[in-house]
Structures are given as structure tokens and as C-alpha cells.
Amino acid sequence: MSRRAAVPRGAAKAQDRGWAWMVLLAVVLLQGLTLGFPSCIGIFFTDLQRDFHASNSETSWFPSIMVAVLHAGGPLCSLLVKRFGCRFAVMLGGLLSSVGMVSSSFCTSLSELYLTAGFITGLGMCFSFQAGVTSLRYYFVRWQALANAMASTGVSLGLTLWPLLSQYLLDEMGWRNTFLIFGGILLNCCVCGAIMRPVQLASKSLLQPARPAEEPGREAEETALANGGSSPHPKAQPARRTSRFQMLKKYLAFDILCQNKGYQIYTIGMTWMMLGFALPHIYLVPYAIHSGVEERMAALLVSVIGFINIFIRPLTGLLSGLSFFTGRRIYLFCLAVLLSGLSNFICVISAKFSVLILYCVILSIAISGVGALTFQVLMDVVDMDRFSSALGLFTILESISLLTGPPLTGFLVDITRNFHCVFYTSSFFLISAALFMAFSFCALERKNKLKEASNAPLDNSSKRQRNEISAEPLSERQTPPTEVRTTNI
Predict the structure, then answer these.
(1) Can you tell me the distance from the alpha carbon of 180 to that of 98, in angstroms, rounded to the nearest whole number?
(2) Largest alpha-carbon pair distance within the chain?
(3) Which is one GO molecular function term here (predicted)?
(4) Are residues 179 and 112 both part of a single domain?
(5) Model confidence over 222-277: pLDDT tens digits?
(6) Strands (DSSP E) found in 95-145
């Protein structure tokens, strides 16, 4: 039998009130430090190209690796959260992020930068960000949609402040010293992790779940490890393989991907969408500088996107929390993705600063909806007890797109010598993904309604049949056996 810790009344009081709001504040800061950070990489794009004599495609691998690892480390983060809790994962992520940026300030080639600022910093940001998002589902129930939207405003703060700080430090002391300072700033993730005080559930910690005792093969595997890796029993080896397979299946959520049609559609659509979603954030500043806009003004464009996000994301969260949008948040999300794709055509019309400001305003409104609803829609289509695993697989598939999209687009820019292909490519992926998800969920909803309607008459007829049988006299029904023997096997 599986063991489940009973939830005492004191634990319920910790949700939606008190210290939960301090944890929300920590998650806001975490998202600003992690998800908001890649937005400033475009400011260093020209300097890195000049110092390392690299092409657009080669330089774009640096932010691509960072963002891809930030998403791909989801399953590993899930294992850390299950084993050690959210607090440990967040603090470990802050330490890795800091070490990666400090090390990157001493790099002598782009390949070294791929490892330090790309892989190590990206992995650390993944631990801090995803463990922070996971902690919200324990602390908030009634106000979960609002909490997710408010937490995503941290990304807006990061988008606003990181570019301005980056441009100032770059002008004053160069990119190497700037990366060194960034390493110190990212250590604040450890402070945010310390705030995530575990909620006690009886003798267990809600933010530090106990290992399930019912996993098949667990005892055999632990006994084998205790004996130096040898199996104490001939059946221990198959049990170990079964345990590992079930753990892999559990933490990578392949069963959800195969069985849950909503999760299937959403994951495919998001994976396709991410091929174009990050392109404007990476290439907007280089495009503006290439078109004659001053570097400080080009950096201001990203800050405008972040500033508007601060106000629009909470409004989107409140709007999506209305009862009217219950079960319909996916359509609101698709509308935001569609608007984001259409807005890219503004950049193609003109590269004047005033036109780019208009583009940033419209794009900011669109991505506010995308950012505020991404995880809320995922929570709608997946059971909460599997959310962490579903998030891990979801972000792994996203990372493949985030890793390949920018370098391939950079290769197109190197060939064509035209930045317009960046925005055409982004629009294609965003618009097609929005239409795919909207029509697929609409078809799935219609199919489910038809299935419910077809099952309803069968259920009613079976109920009537059972009532008729129960109303028959006992003499008219089959005589029950006079003796029943029970054998325990």
C-alpha cells in the first residue's frame, strides 16, 4: 500500500497567505535574474563578434546554448526537487550561475564561452527558475493563476533592468568586467532560495517530498548498492531495471505525452513556436545598430518591452483567472502568440527608432500574454501531482527549438546580409503554431463533447435496466447458490 502524509490544518493555513507572499516575492526576483537575463546578451553581440572574429551564426550559439540549457535541465531539476527540495535546487542554481559568469570573464575563445556562460550559467538558471515555479504550486491554490502572473512580472523587471545595466557597464568597463559583476549579482538567487521555508505536512516537508516507498524494485536496488553493486537475490537485477525504467518514465513524463492529448498538442505547438519566439529578443538590438540606431537607444528598445510587461502581465493573470476563461485559457494564449507573430511585420516596414518603439509596444503586449499563460495552461492540461515531470519534458522539447532556431537564422543573415529574414522566420513559426494549437484544441473539445453525448444514453439505459432487474420478484430471478466457499491463495 502507498503511504500518504495527511495534511494538517496548520499546513493549509500556509497556502495563499502569510509567508506564501514572501515566497512569491522571491520567485519574482528569481525570474528577473534568470529568465530576464538572456535579453541583455544582444547588447554584447557586436563586441563578442569583434573580439572573437566570429560570424552571426557562431555568436548566436552563445545565447542559444544558455537558453536551451535553461529549459533542457528540467528533468534534472525535477530529480533535485524530489530528493532535496526546492530550497536546495534554487540555491545550487544560484551558485552555478555565478560560477559560470565569473569563469566566462576569463574566456579566450567562443567555445570556452559556450561552456561557461552558455552551459554552466544556463544550467544554474534552470535550477533556480524551475524550482521557484514549482514552489508556487505548494504555496498557492485559490490565487494560483494570479500568483503565476505576478511571478512572471519578474521577467518583465529583468527585461527592463538587465539591458540598461548591461549597456552602462559595457560602456564603462567592457564585457569581461561586466560578466564578472554579473556573477556577483546572480548569487542573489541563493538568497531567494533561503526564503523558501518548507511547509510542514505532519512529519514531512511539502517543499521536500519524501521518496515514494511503493516504487517497485526500490528495496532490491538499495540493497544491491549497499553490497557494492552485487545483487543479493537473482530477482534483484530485473527489479532494478524495472525501477530505473519506471523512474525514467515518471520523471520524463513520456506516459503523459502518449496518453494526454491536450498535453500532446500543447507540447508540439510550443516546441514549434519556440523556433521563432526568441529570435526578436536576440536580434533586435543588432538589427537596430546595423540600421543606424545609436547603441544606447538600441538597448532602450528591450527595456521598453520589459517595462510594459510589468503592467500587462498581472492584468493578463487577473483576466485569465475569471470564471469565463476556465477551460478556455488556451485560446487566450493562442491569441497572444498570433499577435506576437503579426507584430514582427512592423520591423520589416521600417527600421527607424520611432517605428521600432511602436513594434516594441505591440510585441510587449503580446508576449505579456504568452509569458503569463504559458505555465498556467500547462497546469490546466496536466494533473498537479505530475506537473513537475510534465514541465521537465515540456522544457526539454522547447530547448531543442531554442538551441537550433537562432543559429540557423543567423546563418540566413550571414548568407543574405539582410536582417529582415529574422522577423519573417519568427512570424512564420509563431503564426502557424498559434493556428495549430487553437484549431487542435477546438477539435479535441468537440470530440470530447461528442463522446460524452454518445455515452450518456448508454449510461441511462443501463441504469434503467438495473432498476428493472432490481424490481423483479426474487422468485423470478435466478436462485443464488446455497453455499459459497472462499479460498485464500
Answers:
(1) 9
(2) 99
(3) monocarboxylic acid transmembrane transporter activity
(4) yes
(5) 333 333 334 444 444 555 555 666 666 665 667 777 788 888 899 999 999 998 88
(6) none
CA 200/CA 198 separation, integer angstroms: 6
Grid cell for residue 303: 527595456
**Contact between residue 391 and residue 134 where contact means Cβ atoms under 8 Å apart:** yes
Positive or negative, the CA dihedral 378, 382, 388, 391 is negative
Handedness of CA 423, 429, 435, 441 (dihedral sign): negative
Is 34 in the same domain as 171? Answer: yes
CA dist 421 and 427 (Å) reads 10
Answer for the pair 152, 140: CB distance below 8 angstroms, yes or no. no
Mean pLDDT of the chain: 77
Residues of the chain with pLDDT under 50: 1-12, 201-236, 469-489
Report helix, strand or coil for 205.
strand
Domain of 429?
253-453
Task: Check whether residue 277 and residue 411 sit in a common domain.
Answer: yes
Output the domain CATH number for residue 129: 1.20.1250.20
What's the total number of domains in the chain? 2
Q: Check: CB of residue 287 under 8 Å from CB of residue 343.
A: no
Whether 349 contacts 355, CB under 8 Å: yes
283 and 174: one domain? no
Q: Which three cell numbers stand for residue 130?
A: 524551475
As given in the structure block, the three cell numbers for residue 158 are: 529583468
Claim to verify: residue 175 and residue 315 sit in the same structural domain: no
